[in-house]
Design brief:
Chain lengths: 309, 427
């Protein structure tokens, strides 16, 4: 039954942009941010809140921009590089950060990301400062394409990528390494007594989550065609945490549902109540947080299970 | 859909009209991008107000070629990807004809390739960065406004003409691309005019700084001859209040590049060099000689309670440029102009506006004069106005097409200043 729900979600996601092409852009953005939110959600399972994951998102985006500037123009290479660079940065930063828990972990992530944000804004000659960097239309396996071709590639290719990555992350979460994450939150000491190296569990989770955020950032850069330091700003990180919680952190699909909800509410709020769009977005979030403790996906899931009975 | 229905109806009525004929649409769809929330609204709202008023006036006069403008306002404060997504949504609507976008340089640079891709004419109303057309061609993007190079070269020229002995300069600019660019251009031009010039302090406080006391102390300690700043909005107001209280304006010559926008709000002392980033001052001789401008200013004051600051004039001028382009396109094409007809009309457009004129040259950059002057008291208003003005001709202070702007500044010489109109010559 859950498979049917997923299939329905994917089908709806794939079909709607055909009716309204501008939604294709928004939907691709949903995928990009959903990937990053999935990274945040993995850490949330271990009770670790990262209010700094936008740094990895931005790092992925800037990696793509830097490659584009230096004439490495293939989409596949760019996305691989975005993922690897962020994974490497995640592994390095993770070495230090996984020793902390609770508010210290959250704040240290925030601190690291704000240092990165400042570097992006100030290293003017490398990053273009606040004006940002342009990302040219990439080639795909060497084939030269125009932007009109790139967009469906990003949307449907991105969807396929998300499914593959989602399945992989699902496997990871069901593996001993993945199952250890909630155990870290409930009783870390018992885990140590069982002979499981908690730092290793957390470091691998942190690296994976950074890689996911980097991949999302890479897709974002290719889609928007322009990267700015705001991508690394703490409000973007906050948004990612919010999206993860909104969607529900229980499974892999939740962050994407949350990301979808936030982007759609934002888009339509901007259209219909241009002057108070931020109020509408805020109110929407409040409603979800107050009334849907299991997140949006939890709600969907429950509805499906109930109807199956 | 509406346009399609109108075409169909017209075809049925006339019987012989082919369905493809471009009939007059019910209205001209115009997307207007500016900051209407957040700190940048201090600059963005005057722009939006002016757009509202200008469009109201044009529509009251029967619109453009008999068709009224229908604006859609977009808040730039929603962030880069939100702005791009709104631009795309609007561009998909066949009833949308032209975009007036945007205020933030970062947003402009993100939107420009999208405009090309969607073949949507985009006319920028602010977008000061000289990077916009640097090494890039954008077929559908036009800037009928000036850019950072002529703007900040003009201040250096004015200072060199009034105060040739000034060599020690201190710079306090906002900490983002606009501030850093301005510092580089101003310093470059000053050094070209006088090799003895040295920068004794260069400070970049972040946007939204509440207290400038550290910066003020450091500037005061450096004892500069000149303080240059392109702070704006609330930051500029804060800086002025704190700097005046500590006597900074008494000991050094001060240049506030965006000073005109706060004349009505702060007590600026006399003799501060201020300007309007272009020629958009409502009280310049050209503006006062134009009945249309006077009426616009009066209506603005009536509607919004204060006189239009230069972002407002910039926006009004930009909408007039769109109007002129439409009129040119209507004349050139049989039937109602398409987006591409409008694009062609913007090419090489020359138009008189509320405060002077603008020419769009072949790289789509605008040639706009620069008005610079100093604050002086007046009996007519309870705030200072700009006196001792110079109006620098655009062709002289804008780098030629295709030339690297910073290299061009390096080629300037002390003679360049004496070849320009003298301060006080614009009366």
């Amino acid at each position: 039954m859950r498979f049917a729900l997923h299939a329905a979600l994917v089908a709806a996601f794939a079909l709607v942009p055909l009716a309204a092409p501008w939604l294709g852009f928004v939907f691709t953005l949903v995928l990009a941010k959903g990937l990053a939110a999935l990274g945040v959600a993995i850490l949330l399972r271990a009770g670790l809140i990262s209010i700094g994951h936008a740094a990895f998102y931005a790092l992925g985006a800037y990696a793509v921009a830097a490659m584009s500037e230096n004439a490495v123009s293939d989409l596949v290479l760019q996305l691989i590089a975005a993922t690897l660079v962020s994974a490497l940065a995640g592994a390095l930063i993770g070495l230090f950060l996984v020793r902390y828990r609770g508010i210290f972990f959250a704040m240290l992530n925030l601190a690291v990301s704000m240092v990165f944000y400042t570097l992006l804004s100030k290293m003017y000659h490398l990053t273009g400062g606040t004006d940002g960097l342009r990302v040219d239309t990439p080639t795909v396996f060497g084939a030269v394409i125009d932007r009109d071709t790139l967009e469906p590639i990003l949307l449907y290719g991105g969807l396929a990528l998300v499914i593959v990555v989602g399945l992989a992350v699902h496997r990871y979460l069901k593996s001993p390494m993945g199952e250890a994450l909630p155990a870290v939150e409930t009783n870390e000491i018992r885990l140590e007594y069982l002979g499981i190296a908690v730092p290793r569990v957390l470091l691998s989770a942190y690296t994976l989550s950074a890689a996911l955020a980097g991949l999302g950032g890479g897709v974002h850069a290719l889609l928007v065609g322009h990267v700015v330091p705001d991508l690394a700003y703490w409000t973007t990180s906050g948004q990612l945490v919010l999206v993860a919680v909104l969607g529900g952190i229980g499974g892999v699909v939740g962050p994407f549902v949350g990301s979808f909800f936030l982007e759609i509410v934002r888009s339509f709020a901007v259209i219909y109540v241009a002057d108070t769009w931020n109020l509408i977005v805020g109110a929407g979030l409040l409603v979800v947080i107050f009334f849907l403790p299991v997140g949006l996906y939890g709600l969907l899931d429950r509805a499906v299970r109930r109807s199956a009975k | 859909m509406r346009r399609f229905a109108a075409t169909l109806a017209a075809a049925l009525v006339a019987g012989s009209v082919p369905a493809l004929a471009q009939d007059k649409p019910a209205d001209i769809g115009m997307g207007v991008f500016t900051f209407t929330s957040g700190p940048a609204a201090a600059y963005g709202m005057p722009g939006r107000n002016a757009a509202e008023l200008m469009i109201e006036q044009i529509n009251a006069d029967g619109g453009i070629g008999g068709v009224p403008i229908k604006p859609t306002y977009v808040d730039e404060a929603q962030g880069g990807e939100g702005v791009v997504s709104e631009f795309r949504r609007l561009a998909e609507d066949p009833e949308m004809d032209v975009m007036v976008a945007a205020l933030s340089s970062g947003n402009c640079m993100a939107l420009a390739p999208v405009a090309d891709q969607l073949q949507m004419p985009m006319v920028t109303w602010n977008c000061d960065t000289h990077q916009l057309f640097l090494n890039e061609t954008h077929d559908y993007v036009f800037r009928p406004n000036s850019s950072t190079i002529p703007e900040f070269v003009a201040y250096a020229a004015y200072l060199s003409a009034t105060d040739p002995e000034a060599t020690r300069i201190a710079i306090i600019n906002p900490d983002y691309a606009f501030g850093h660019d301005a510092a580089q251009i101003f310093t470059g031009a000053m050094k070209a005019f006088n090799p003895d010039v040295e920068v004794v302090a260069e400070l970049f406080p972040k946007l939204g700084t509440a207290s400038f006391n550290t910066e003020i102390s450091r500037i005061a300690a450096a004892r500069p001859d000149v303080i240059f700043s392109n702070l704006w909005g609330g930051d500029l107001e804060n800086f002025i209040r704190q700097a005046s209280a500590r006597g900074l304006f008494r000991n050094s010559k001060v240049i506030l590049a965006l000073g005109e926008s706060v004349l009505q709000r702060t007590d600026l002392p006399d003799g501060v060099i201020v300007g309007v980033l272009g020629d958009g001052w409502w009280m310049s001789p050209d503006a006062q000689a134009n009945e249309e401008t006077k009426a616009f200013v009066a209506a603005y004051k009536e509607k919004f309670g204060e006189y239009p600051v230069f972002p407002a004039m910039k926006m009004a001028n930009t909408i007039l440029a769109v109007k002129a382009a439409y009129e040119k396109a209507i004349e050139a094409s049989d039937g109602w102009p398409t987006r591409d007809d409008l694009r062609d009309a913007l090419e090489g457009l020359q138009v008189d506006n509320l405060t002077g004129s603008v020419t769009i040259r072949e790289d789509h950059d605008g040639l706009v004069d620069q008005v610079v002057g100093v604050t002086e008291p007046t009996d007519d208003y309870d705030f200072p106005i700009i006196g001792e003005m110079a109006r620098y001709p655009a062709e002289k202070i804008t780098p030629p097409v295709g030339e690297d702007p910073m290299a061009w500044i390096g080629t300037l010489s002390p003679d360049f200043v004496s070849s320009l109109p003298a301060p006080g010559s614009y009366k």
